[in-house]
């Protein structure tokens, strides 16, 4: 049941693209002209860790980062510059940093989930957006309104995805992407030399969280996995399995900067690479299975791999764990779900739950 509902987020947003990816997934690597589809676990890992990638190509996440700031912003950085700016962020998002930020989202959860105690309903997409916006504001020291910031970050990702993913370009798309980026940077209220980096972080943090939390909650509710959310140890396994099967950032568009190889298949400079995190993490094969979870090395591939792997993974896991812990006593069920057809990442526009206890 959980898997059946979750499929709708792919079919509703990019049906042709995901049908193509499903049809080719039996090949670990599949070339299509200058586009290389990378599905296999080993091939995905090799590409992210061994193939030199052009971090500033226009049709990649790094390209979006450039539009946001014009300066260098992690996703589009290489070498020593990347190492320095990444080290600072990894410190901020380490265990002490996450512990410092935690009261911000637990306060949002306590307030917004309260209606469940009196038989009311809650839309988890709204909760996730506020939680992500409030966390990002605290992380950046921004003066923005959390809900407004989350909405602006979601518009940036929606317009960027339309440009990055294969398919027909609509007229005015590039203009819409620039306008959305301008709106977000104007909102942030951080010093001018930090705006680009702050905007990129806001986009990375908000969109993944708004996609991940409602999809994980829906799957947990549909498969009645709430027992596993009751204790710390089993909740940790549940979180890893739910993130693995939902693979919130399912497709990483990249461009090869030089020759390399992915699981033995040659990659040429300039090849457009579509890295399918969802298949690399074997989301389509099995689970979520808390009794026999996938090995951690496979599960963590939904956060990428190598020098650019997601620095927000710990934060994302703790936020999801806290959300599941806060919901579990009510044993919620999904009463309404509506796909977000425009979002940057496959997800719900509405995911309303009601308690059953
Ligand atoms: C479930 C939630 C999340 C998922 C699935 C996710 C996934 C990813 C993936 C797949 C990448 C690309 C990794 C690569 O190229 O190897 C990435 C990069 C990144 N993520 Fe996340 N992410 C999540 C949450 C977050 C959060 C909450 C933050 C910030 C607070 C964040 C910040 C970043 C940044 C800054 C990068 C770029 C790192 C670099 O280029 O060095 N992410 N994420």
TrEMBL record:
Q: Which domain of life is it from?
A: Bacteria
* PROSITE patterns with a match to the protein in the record: CYTOCHROME_P450
The record's section on InterPro entries has: Cyt_P450_CS, Cyt_P450_sf
Per the UniProt entry, what species is this protein from, by scientific name?
Micromonospora echinofusca
Kindly give the SUPFAM superfamilies that the UniProt entry links to this protein. Answer: Cytochrome P450 (SSF48264)
- Record-stated family: Belongs to the cytochrome P450 family.
- What is the protein's given name? Cytochrome P450
